[in-house]
Description:
By secondary structure, this protein is mostly helical. The protein has one domain: Response regulator (Rossmann fold, 3-Layer(aba) Sandwich). Helices cover 47% and strands 5% of the residues. It contains six helices and two strands. A two-stranded parallel ribbon has the order 1-2. It is globular and about 40 Å long.
Amino acid sequence: xxxxxxxxxxxxxxxxxxxxxxxxxxxxxxxxxxxxxxxxxxxxxxxxxxxxxxxxxxxxxxxxxxxxxxxxxxxxxxxxxxxxxxxxxxxxxxxxxxxxxxxxxxxxxxxxxxxxxxxxxxxxxx
Length: 126
């Protein structure tokens, strides 16, 4: 959801100097497209749906990107097993965990958390 929301914002505001991607920390969803309930929530908020297939993060991805945001402490645990954060690029999106709709089914709560986090990212740039 966060990838699509940020890409949509950048496109609507003609910001072209930011490249956005998303990665999994586990292998369960590798190759899958966006979850139908997440897609429905984004469509309800007029967020463009982009081409996407889930992929697991690698050290090469870490090396490529300037900033990497994770959603919750569980993500950080897995990131630390997969990557060496030698340049301290890993940042939690919010001070709290982003609501995980996989367990709660509440995609709207996740959407609101992501709006807050994306605004924080964009405000750091201005």
